[in-house]
């Protein structure tokens, strides 16, 4: 690399660190895709207006001090189409997604709220099926749906059903999970195969005429989190569920927030052949495809092997792998050693690879 | 994955890489152009540069159909898409290509009915399902995608679909390569020839490169081992003083091409007298339009399009990058005014564009990275 090239890259890095400005005159679909445009919307428009200490870390769940404890609070809206897909449905997804946002912050879920936005004309049978799916998922995660709201909108103003869930939990005082706890040398664990949910939705939509059996991985992550906590204790530094935007996005956020570099080994990434095949045909990188039942954990090197074995012993963690590590350099960047023997960087996603997946 | 993983084998890669190093003259600098954007993407995605000796420089060529589309053609597409009676269909890559006043994604947010399709046949289905709307397909691509547009039009004609038309932006691969070879500011030692285009046109059309210009060409596949092997074949030719068209991708590419596809294309299309290429200017007989027999399906005739030539933004140096004169990072606006989120030039839009590939995959401080480090 020449000096000139290095200078260009350094300038580019400086620009990346500046707070983004939101300049679009209208919202387009890329603003909802979880990549760079979404970040710009959040950091350039929402954050400046709402600025406060609890919101500032921009995490999926906020930790709010309450007496000696910390309350964890999270909310998510679900607009997936189709409502039912192989391996799950919107109701199940809405409960698991919110439970998982609490779980990966080390919080024990206490209760959920659920708001339903129903389109005029929706068959009662479908609504009833989804409410039952919510009830079953809540029972499985051991958390009650304690309150809720119902609205009906005119025909054509909603895709059958939107669900918004909010979750409240208590943070585990023994865990200190934060990007600031992450150190060079720490290992990155992934609890199972990547991209299953996004690929399942894409195939279920039928636009592609691909015939392949891929099931969404929607499930509560609480048992996996418990296993990690038991085996690694305070060596467990950081967790996230790589939903919209996938592993590539979560690791870029980690690199940015920790100030360290992240390196992945391509050959260690657990990806099903059929998901890889579908992504290959569509020109999509599975690293950016959504998961709804997987977690990424950063664990101190000495505890990594035990943590991996702990994940293997839990249902939903059988395919877990150590997929990479935290390094001093290249700072604030994610790189991947390719299976072919080269190296490339992994940036945050630009644009919209998959529409309406959660 | 069958037929893919075999071509991504790291051990074989190391062997080919060592072989390339052994036939490379350490005193010499080699400039090799990969014509096709798909190859550019593979090179960055798999980190192939790390497996080549420093003396071999890969120059990214003009073979990305989205990247070479001039801004005026994007504006014309948008002017059709904005018509209230139109359902406008296109491939996903087109959505963020900048026109002079915005892109299709923004026009969609303003209310235009724009739908992303994966095949022109999807557009045909939309036309059948919406008989009271005009359905337009924005056709782009080299000879790779032109046959599927041709087959779609043949089917539309057979079905007598009156509400379907095609805005044709198909281009051909040989004229721009000839223009590059005629360009005085470019010195290349050889070409990695496009694979998918060649499945249709075969290898014979490249013979002028070796015969008239004395440049070797190896038609290559798209897996990383295909590319490495093609570079090896080129280096062997150069080393031995040979200059031929060779076919590395013979498992897919027949020497004579696909005669059925060529026949469909000949029926549906004819050559335009000239066409504007972004960065390369007007090139004679370098693009396709619908033949008189298919004029009824020609969106350019059905809707009045402005037909205005729009100059590229002044700061944009896509042309120099396309010709391989500048590397992406040497462009004045690379990474500052022009990024994948807000592309000024088309090379930053498509995942096959040289600038986007470099921005998304290539930026890294090489000295600081342990190459090929293992768990």
Automatic annotation (TrEMBL), chain B:
The lineage of its organism: Bacteria, Bacillati, Actinomycetota, Rubrobacteria, Rubrobacterales. Gene3D superfamilies: 6.10.20.100, HypD, alpha/beta domain 1. Belongs to the HypD family. GO terms for biological process: protein maturation. Keywords: Iron, Metal-binding. It holds the Pfam family HypD. Transmembrane segments: none annotated. This is [NiFe] hydrogenase metallocenter assembly protein HypD. GO terms for molecular function: 4 iron, 4 sulfur cluster binding; carbon monoxide binding; iron ion binding. It comes from the Bacteria.
């Amino acid at each position: 690399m020449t000096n000139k090239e290095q200078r260009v890259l350094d300038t580019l890095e400086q620009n990346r660190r500046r707070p983004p400005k939101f300049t679009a005159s209208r919202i387009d679909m890329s603003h909802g895709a979880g990549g760079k445009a979404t970040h710009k919307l959040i950091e350039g428009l929402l954050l400046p207006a709402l600025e406060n200490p609890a919101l500032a870390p921009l995490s999926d769940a906020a930790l709010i001090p309450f007496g000696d404890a910390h309350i964890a609070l999270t909310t998510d809206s679900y607009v997936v189409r189709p409502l039912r897909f192989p391996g799950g449905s919107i109701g199940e997804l809405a409960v698991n997604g919110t439970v998982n946002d609490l779980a990966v912050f080390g919080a024990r879920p206490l209760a959920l709220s659920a708001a339903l936005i129903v389109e005029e004309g929706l068959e009662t049978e479908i609504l009833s099926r989804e409410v039952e799916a919510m009830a079953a998922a809540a029972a499985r995660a051991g958390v009650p749906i304690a309150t809720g709201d119902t609205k009906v909108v005119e025909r054509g103003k909603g895709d059958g059903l939107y669900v918004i869930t909010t979750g409240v939990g208590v943070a585990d005082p023994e865990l200190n999970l934060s990007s600031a706890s992450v150190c060079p040398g720490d290992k990155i664990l992934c609890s199972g195969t990547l991209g299953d949910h996004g690929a399942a939705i894409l195939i279920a939509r039928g636009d592609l005429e691909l015939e392949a059996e891929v099931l969404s991985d929607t499930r509560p992550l609480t048992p996996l989190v418990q296993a990690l906590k038991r085996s690694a204790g305070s060596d467990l530094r950081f967790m996230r569920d790589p939903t919209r935007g996938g592993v590539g996005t979560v690791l870029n956020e980690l690199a940015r927030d920790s100030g360290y570099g992240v390196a992945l080994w391509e050959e260690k990434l657990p990806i099903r052949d059929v998901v890889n095949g579908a992504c290959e045909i569509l020109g999509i990188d599975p690293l950016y495809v959504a998961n709804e039942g997987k977690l990424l954990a950063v664990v101190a090197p000495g505890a990594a092997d035990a943590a991996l074995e702990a994940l293997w012993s839990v249902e939903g963690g059988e395919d877990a792998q150590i997929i990479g590590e935290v390094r001093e350099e290249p700072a604030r960047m994610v790189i991947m050693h390719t299976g072919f023997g080269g190296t490339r960087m992994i940036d945050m996603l630009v644009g919209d690879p998959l529409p309406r997946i959660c | 994955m069958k037929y893919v993983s075999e071509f991504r084998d790291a051990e074989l890669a190391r062997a080919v890489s060592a072989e390339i190093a052994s036939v490379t003259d350490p005193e010499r600098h080699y400039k090799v152009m990969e014509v096709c954007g798909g190859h550019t993407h593979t090179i960055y995605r798999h980190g192939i540069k790390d497996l080549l000796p420093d003396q071999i420089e890969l120059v990214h060529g003009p073979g990305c159909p989205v990247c070479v589309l001039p801004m005026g053609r994007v504006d014309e597409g948008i002017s059709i898409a904005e018509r209230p009676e139109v359902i406008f269909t296109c491939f996903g890559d087109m959505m963020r290509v900048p026109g002079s006043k915005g892109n299709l994604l923004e026009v969609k947010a303003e209310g235009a009915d724009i739908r992303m399709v994966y095949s022109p046949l999807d557009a045909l289905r939309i036309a059948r399902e919406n008989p009271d709307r005009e359905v337009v397909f924005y056709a782009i691509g080299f000879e790779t995608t032109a046959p599927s547009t041709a087959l779609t039009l043949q089917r539309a004609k057979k079905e007598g679909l009156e509400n379907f038309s095609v805005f044709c932006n198909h281009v051909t691969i040989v004229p721009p390569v000839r223009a590059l070879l005629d360009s005085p500011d470019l010195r290349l030692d050889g070409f990695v020839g496009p694979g998918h285009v060649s499945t249709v046109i075969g290898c014979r059309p490249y013979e002028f490169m070796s015969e008239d210009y004395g440049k070797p060409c190896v038609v290559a596949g798209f897996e990383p081992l295909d590319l490495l092997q093609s570079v090896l074949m080129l280096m062997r030719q150069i080393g031995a003083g040979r200059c031929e068209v060779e076919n590395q991708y013979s498992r897919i590419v027949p020497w004579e091409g696909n005669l059925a596809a060529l026949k469909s294309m000949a029926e549906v299309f004819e050559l335009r007298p000239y066409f504007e290429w972004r960065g390369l200017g007007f090139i004679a007989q370098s693009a396709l339009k619908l033949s008189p027999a298919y004029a009824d399906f020609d969106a350019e005739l059905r809707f009045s399009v402005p037909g205005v030539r729009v100059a590229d933004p002044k700061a944009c140096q896509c042309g120099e990058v396309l010709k391989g004169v500048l590397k992406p990072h040497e462009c004045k606006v690379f990474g500052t005014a022009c990024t994948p989120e807000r592309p000024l030039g088309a090379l930053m839009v498509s995942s096959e564009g040289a600038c986007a590939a470099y921005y998304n995959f290539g930026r890294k401080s090489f000295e600081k990275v342990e190459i090929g480090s293992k768990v």
